[in-house]
Amino acid sequence: STPVATFCALLRAARMGLLVKGGNVLESLGEVRVAAFDKTGTITRGEFSIKDFLVVRDKVQMSQLLYWVSSIESKSSHPMAAALVEYAQSKSIQPKPEDVTETCIYHGEGIYGAINGKHIYIGNERIMARSSCRQQAGHRETDGLKGVSVGLVICDGDLVGKFSLSDTCRTGAAEAILQLRSMGIKSVMLTGDSEAAAKHAQEQLGGVLEELHSGLLPEDKVRLIRGLQARHGATLMVGDGMNDAPALAAADVGVSMGLSGSAAAIETSHATLMSGDVLRVPKAVRLGRRTRRTIA
Ligand code: ADP
Ligand code: MG
């Protein structure tokens, strides 16, 4: 391959807002047969709004619950955390991260924090199991909530609160997937969020995705990437979160979201999109295909 052609292609990629770590990445982009998209922050904006926030146990007051949740979530960079902190502030509760003495982040599950001697878990049904919550399983707990993504709050083994949130798809997401399809590339969704949230996003997109996989842990995303590689060949992964980092590394081409993406995703990916404009994904694949022809 001629270094000049590769260099020109890298410059062209940079001009379209895609920072590529090396010329071979563009060539690989040109070979992609299937694309896997993370949901939160990739297909969607990653800007959640709280639809419901409910106290489950009478013993606990709403102000107390919001203080615990917002203080602990202040320690998290998850898109849901920002929404919860903002929600508490809108109810005049100031988070006090300095009161949180211990935290642990569980990717694909939620967060644990110790505050005022209380042990609090916030997250999905997986965190409920981890917290050894005295109530059985999360089902039914989420009935009647308005948002499609659901969260639970467990304090010292008791379910004390629940909330629901919604997020919207990025403009251009459906169009990007349609363009990929017209290029012979099928698109699938890999998300740690619930099945309801995955289906909701698919509906917003007009049903353009060919497969939905929900409730995934970071290692599940890697397993699914390996499956796509085995079945279809060169696989593209687009993601933003820390939970996407292993899948981005496992893919033939991992593309991270630069503006909102986590440092881990940007580091392990092969290329970074400098804006939230996912239409640049099919554009980059077209550039990759042209690059392959030029240097062949
Ligand atoms: P995605 O793959 O859609 O980007 P994540 O793996 O980041 O999702 O998160 C999966 C799920 O874990 C979320 O939908 C949420 O239920 C839960 N979760 C993760 N982090 C948090 C947090 N800080 N607060 C509450 N819930 C969380
Ligand atoms: Mg994400």
UniProtKB/TrEMBL annotation:
It is found in: Membrane. The chain holds residues 96 to 391 of 617 of the full protein. Belongs to the cation transport ATPase (P-type) (TC 3.A.3) family. Type IB subfamily. It comes from the Eukaryota. This is Cadmium/zinc-transporting ATPase HMA2.
